[in-house]
Design goal:
Layout (H helix, E strand, L loop, with lengths): L8 H13 L3 E7 L1 H4 L8 E7 L3 H15 L4 E4 L8 E7 L13 E8 L4 E3 L1 H4 L3 E4 L5 E3 L4 H31 L3 H24 L11 H4 L4 H6 L7 H19 L1
Parallel strand pairs: 2-5, 6-8
Antiparallel strand pairs: 1-2, 1-7, 3-4, 4-5
Length: about 250
């Protein structure tokens, strides 16, 4: 069933009008949870725009139009060095986004330079809602399998090589009664690599998606098992269980 985007109808209207204001806008799509699943009353609207001109200039022009059309509370523009060819900002259309007593109105606007060949892997990102693509530039196809396989192999090799060092760092921090450091090391070396290994084992196309979407990407019950390993008063027990699970998955992957 398609996501109900009606609370963003005014935004969708603006997005369809963008090419009339900015001829350099070549492709506009809605992506994110609206097309991958999990979209609800507190989801943002993920918008991707590809431009034939510099992304930063297009982003600035689009944002100027947004300010003319909408009552914008504030914008978090992601640091310019985050993306080599793109510009991204989170546009808050109401104050206090953390107040979930009302539907969320927040737009994640991502503007990128149009590549020679524009592709989206639907296994990773879902099938986008195309608002503008008159030239048919967007192609739905899988990302390069050899490159992703190489990334997965490297992740497995690193997890195996780092396993003993990671366990030592967590146990040492616990022994020193340094809870902050132990918690950080537990997340970094016990839990996060475990999730990566589980993704490689069970949803390889989304191996690099981190700790999000675990209930949809991993087998039933795995998210709950991982929740039981989050930092708690018995951190030593939890971190040993996490590393033991790492060993189990590494054995399967090898």
């Amino acid at each position: 069933m398609a996501a109900d985007l009606s609370r963003y109808d005014d935004w969708l209207e603006l997005l369809r009008e963008l090419p009339a204001h900015r001829p350099d806008v070549r492709v506009v799509v809605v992506s994110g949870s609206a097309v991958t699943g999990g979209y609800d009353s507190h989801s943002d609207l993920d918008v991707q725009v590809w431009s034939s001109g510099p992304a930063a200039a297009t982003y600035d022009a689009v944002l100027a139009l947004v300010h003319e059309r909408f009552d914008v509370d504030h914008v978090w523009r992601v640091a310019a060095d985050r993306w080599p060819t793109a510009a991204q900002g989170f546009i808050h259309l109401q104050p206090d986004a953390a107040d979930l007593s009302r539907p969320t109105r927040l737009v994640d606007l991502f503007v990128d330079l149009l590549p020679q060949r524009l592709t989206i892997d639907v296994r990773r990102h879902g099938t986008p809602v195309v608002l503008h693509d008159p030239d048919g530039r967007l192609v739905l196809e899988h990302d390069d399998e050899d490159a992703m396989a190489a990334q997965r192999r490297q992740a497995v090799e690193q997890a195996a090589a780092r396993r003993q060092t990671g366990a030592w760092l967590v146990e040492r921090a616990i022994a020193r009664d340094d809870l902050v450091e132990a918690t950080w090391f537990h997340m970094r070396f016990a839990l996060e690599p475990l999730v990566t290994l589980l993704r490689i084992r069970h949803c390889p196309a989304r191996h690099d998606f981190g700790l999000r979407y675990l209930r949809t990407d991993l087998p039933a019950g795995f998210a709950e098992r991982l929740e039981a390993l989050l930092p708690g008063p018995d951190l030593a027990v939890r971190t040993r269980a996490a590393f033991a699970w790492q060993d189990e998955v590494l054995a399967q992957l090898r």
